[in-house]
Amino acid sequence: MSSPAIEVEHLVKTFGDHRAVDDVSFTVPQGTVLGLLGPNGAGKTTTVRMLTTLTRPTSGTARVAGHDVVREPDRVRRSMGLTGQAATVDELLTGRENLRLIGALYGLSSSYVKRASEDLLERFSLTDAADRIVKTYSGGMRRRLDLAVSLVATPPVLFLDEPTTGLDPRSRVELWEVLRTLVKDGTTLLLTTQYLEEADQLADRIVVIDRGTIIAEGTALELKDRSGRASLVLTVSHAHDLPAAEALLRTRVSEVHVDEAARQLTSPAEGLRDMTRIAAVFEDSQIELDDLGLKRPSLDDVFLHLTGHRAEDTTERDSSDTTEEQAS
């Protein structure tokens, strides 16, 4: 069995008396995506900076592609790519020139860099804009170029620190498709995000971090199941049928929540079998339905269940994360 692409054991980072990262441990198998999920100030960026050799851990160990981040920083850097929260490409160069510059800095042959640049420009839908200076690019184009630059040396491990921050919904979805293609081709991703939908869409496993500490880990489905049962949601076509629908539903379930404004009835459900059973009951009635579906808890519900607050409620940046970002 191949070794993990990323191994983190009891990682700690302190700034004075403040523990920005507190005894964090996880592994990322090769060719998978780990979502490091948490609000601003949770310690996500500090963790990434330690794993990418930009910050030295206070204690604990971490290995990237089998190399220790403290004892073998040069080998770690040759094995990974990093895309930070802000695009770091040179705005006064063209897209093609940015790619070739990074290739030269890596010491790669000019023939290889030329081929790789053309391939990356095509892969990231930037061929038509390759010879335009980057300051004319849209936000989504800059993020795609930033990601392309991090792949010039074909690293097996890629760290993405909130890569879709500031992008419009369309650009975000386009970038997700690019990331899925990278994983399909064998790249291992560690993705930090405060967007719950992003972790749900991309991550094979999710580590939830809050105030520097891991509070939960698992697949999106496992985490959702931890926060409560699924719900059956039934929407009647006509508001005057709502009382009759409630009465009929209560003959099959003991708990029903009524939302008159939305014409909806909600009750706990174990799964698709419950939905099929209730559908059959209403099929034999005279009550018309607009919709009948099964709703699982969202990752936002998970975060609320685990921390007592929703992710978006935490807006103040952790001072250590801010200090680290300013130093980079």
Automatic annotation (TrEMBL):
Where the record annotates domain ABC transporter, the positions are: 6-236
* Topological category with respect to the lipid bilayer: Peripheral membrane protein
The record's listing under InterPro entries reads: AAA+_ATPase (IPR003593), ABC_transporter-like_ATP-bd (IPR003439), ABC_transporter-like_CS (IPR017871), ABC_transporter_ATP-binding (IPR050763), DrrA (IPR005894), P-loop_NTPase (IPR027417)
Which UniProt keyword terms apply here?
Antibiotic resistance, ATP-binding, Cell membrane, Membrane, Nucleotide-binding, Translocase, Transport
Picking any one GO molecular function of the record gives: ATP binding
Presence of keyword Transport: yes
| Keyword Disulfide bond included in the entry's annotation | no
Compartmental location: Cell membrane
Predominant location of this chain? Answer: membrane
Family, per entry? Belongs to the ABC transporter superfamily. Drug exporter-1 (DrugE1) (TC 3.A.1.105) family.
Protein name listed in UniProt: Daunorubicin resistance protein DrrA family ABC transporter ATP-binding protein
